[in-house]
Specification:
Helix content: 25-40%
Distance between the termini: 14 Å
Strand order of the largest sheet: 2-1-6
Shape: flat
Radius of gyration: 23 Å
Order of helices and strands: EEHHEEEHEH
C-alpha cells in the first residue's frame, strides 16, 4: 500500500517576518504499536517455513541479547536492519579527574538504520496525500484541487483506510 500523509503548516520567524510553509507529516492509520511481535512472527513464519513459535521465541529473546551487548559497551549490528548504540554523558566538571564512573549515565539508546534498508525504502515506498478537503477549509483550496479530489474519490483512487494483518 504505502504511507498516507497529511499536510501541516509550520510558521517560521525570519528577518523579513513570519513565514509559513507546508510540510508532509505521517498520518497514523494503524493500531497503537504498529506491527506487533505476534504479527511479525506470523509473517516471518509464513515466508520462511519456520514455526511461528520458534520465530516468536527468537523475537522475544532478541532484546535481551541486544541489552546484554550494550551493557558490555558493544554496539549491535544486524545486517539489513541496522545498528543499536548507546550514548553516554555526565555533568560538567572543572577538572578532568572529577569525571568519575558514578557521574556517567546513559543519555539515550539509539538505532541507526542500515543504509540498504534506507535505500530500499526510499526507492520503493509510495506516498498518498490524504484529501486536503477533509481537513482544510474549502476557502483555502483551489477549485481545481477540490474537483480533482472528488473525482479521485469517486474513482476509488484513494487508498483504503483499513488495517490488515495478513502475512
Amino acid at each position: 500500500m504505502g504511507m498516507i500523509y497529511l499536510v501541516r503548516k509550520k510558521l517560521f520567524q525570519t528577518k523579513e517576518g513570519a513565514k509559513q510553509l507546508y510540510y508532509a507529516v505521517q498520518r497514523t492509520l494503524q493500531p497503537r504499536g504498529g506491527v506487533t511481535e505476534d504479527i511479525l512472527a506470523k509473517r516471518i513464519a509464513h515466508r520462511t517455513g519456520r514455526s511461528e513459535g520458534d520465530v516468536k521465541g527468537i523475537l522475544a529473546d532478541l532484546p535481551h541479547f541486544i541489552e546484554e551487548a550494550l551493557k558490555n559497551g558493544e554496539s549491535v549490528s544486524i545486517k539489513g536492519l541496522g545498528s543499536f548504540h548507546i550514548a553516554i554523558t555526565s555533568e560538567g566538571f572543572e577538572h578532568p579527574e572529577d569525571v568519575m564512573p558514578g557521574t556517567v549515565r546513559i543519555s539515550r539508546v539509539y538505532f541507526t538504520a542500515d543504509r540498504g534498508l534506507t535505500r530500499e525504502l526510499s526507492r520503493e515506498m509510495r506516498f498518498f496525500r490524504y484529501p486536503l478537503s477533509k481537513y482544510f477549509p474549502a476557502s483555502m483550496l483551489s477549485k481545481k484541487v477540490v474537483e480533482a479530489e472528488k473525482k479521485a474519490e469517486l474513482q476509488g483512487e484513494f487508498p483504503e483506510e483499513e488495517i490488515t494483518e495478513n502475512p
